[in-house]
Amino acid sequence: MRYDCIIIGSGPAGLSAAINLKTYNKNFLWFGNANLSDKVEKAEKVNNYPGLYGVSGKELQEAFRRHKDAMELEITDKIVSAVYNMGGYYNVMAENQFFETESIILAMGVVTANQYKGEAEFVGRGVSYCATCDGALYRGKKIAVISTSKRFEHEVKFLAELAEQVYLFPFYKECEMEGDNITLIKTAPKEITGGFRVERLELVNGETLEPDGIFIMRSSIAPTTLLADLQMEDGHIAVNRKQETNLQGVYAIGDCTGKPYQYAKAVGEGNVAAHSVIEYLGEK
Ligand SMILES: Cc1cc2nc3c(=O)[nH]c(=O)nc-3n(C[C@H](O)[C@H](O)[C@H](O)COP(=O)(O)OP(=O)(O)OC[C@H]3O[C@@H](n4cnc5c(N)ncnc54)[C@H](O)[C@@H]3O)c2cc1C
Question: In what order do the strands lie in the sheet with 198-203?
Answer without folding.
Answer: 189-194, 198-203, 208-209
